[in-house]
Amino acid sequence: MAAHGIDLVKPEELSKGDLAQWQHWRRADPDLVSPYYSPDWARAVARARGDVRIAILYGEAGRKSAFLPLQRPSQEILQPAGGPLCDYQGAIGTADQVLDIGALLRSTKAGRLDFANVLAKQSTFGAKARNVHVSRVINLADGHEAYLQHRRDVGSSETKRAGKRRRKLGRDIGQVRLVPNCKDMQLFDQLIRWKCDQYERTGQTDIFSHEWALSLVRDLYVNPTEDLSAELFALYAGDQLAALNLCLRSGSVLHCWFIAHDPALSHFSPGLVLFEELIAHACSAGIAEIDLGAGDYRFKLNLANAARPLCEGFVGAGAFSAQMRAAAYGMRNVFETLPLGPISDLPAKAMRRHDLQLGLRTSS
Prior knowledge:
The protein has 364 residues and is of the alpha+beta class. The protein folds into two domains: 5-133 and 312-360, Aminopeptidase (3-Layer(aba) Sandwich); 142-287, Gcn5-related N-acetyltransferase (GNAT) (Aminopeptidase). Helix content is 39%, strand content 26%. It contains twelve helices and 13 strands. It has helices spanning 16-28, 39-48, 101-108, 123-126, 144-153, 158-172, 185-202, 211-222, 270-282, 298-303, 320-337, 346-360, and strands spanning 5-9, 53-58, 64-74, 77-80, 92-93, 112-119, 129-139, 176-179, 229-237, 240-250, 253-261, 289-294, 306-315. Strands 1, 2, 3, 4, 5, 6, 7, 8, 9, 10, 11, 12 and 13 form a 13-stranded mixed β-sheet that branches. Helix 2 (39-48) crosses helix 8 (211-222), helix 6 packs across helix 9 and helix 11 (320-337) packs antiparallel against helix 12. The longest helix has 18 residues, at 185-202. The radius of gyration is 21 Å and the shape is globular. The protein starts with a strand and ends with a helix.
């Protein structure tokens, strides 16, 4: 079903009918369960930065067919609302939607729409994808014991490794315990300090040096809604704080967002211990799924028992910004086919760093 019209509105301008339709589409599609697909995510991003709009797309007979939350870091470029802080992107709508992104670009006078973590099954974006990856998921629908059995069956050693670390942490520091859904701004501030220190140590872009990003994360922690909240999980060894994990939650889905630990305790792998404790806690807390996000990190590969295909790329043609984007992907693809070892990854790393910095920029 092709779209036949577009409206652009601020998130707070959505009607009750719009919000009801939005949630209806989420309930109808099991892949739209992520907290990032909640309308409250777009609203929160809009409170933090002023360039967020919802593109309402219409199909045949003038019926609404999809909502697409967007931000505009520059006049030439559109991105999903939240940019690099948004681990799931794309449209909320009917399963057979075909979106006229060309019409959207013409109506906004933008040159291209970038995307990084759109469900690969959304054909409008999948057809323009330059890379496909997955978000690693812990599915707990059958309970904790069934999950553990699956991990034993596939030969995962992470539980055994975490158990050893947990026992050593308990012996050397103090009894290990998980405190769920902490409502303590001192703990929140500690998480931010640890993350900023981590960014500095590893030479990564400090997300929280951008006021809107810190404001967004703090807002979701301080002001939960019925459909979206940021829950903070703390791991203690005795009285000593060892690790923190801030997760987004919508319904029975928990999405791990920012995790950090006390650097002095790194040899205990407190982040891994926290994950094991969180998984054990989840089933009793009505959590059916823990999403670990994209990335083929060892701990994600060993903890996850499911995955959702995602894609990245851009939509646009003719505009200079679209031509530059195509050229960047072209160079990246050439380097990735060459036997240059780590050098082959340099263009991809440069693009990711550029995209992160672009997404953190505000034009308003």
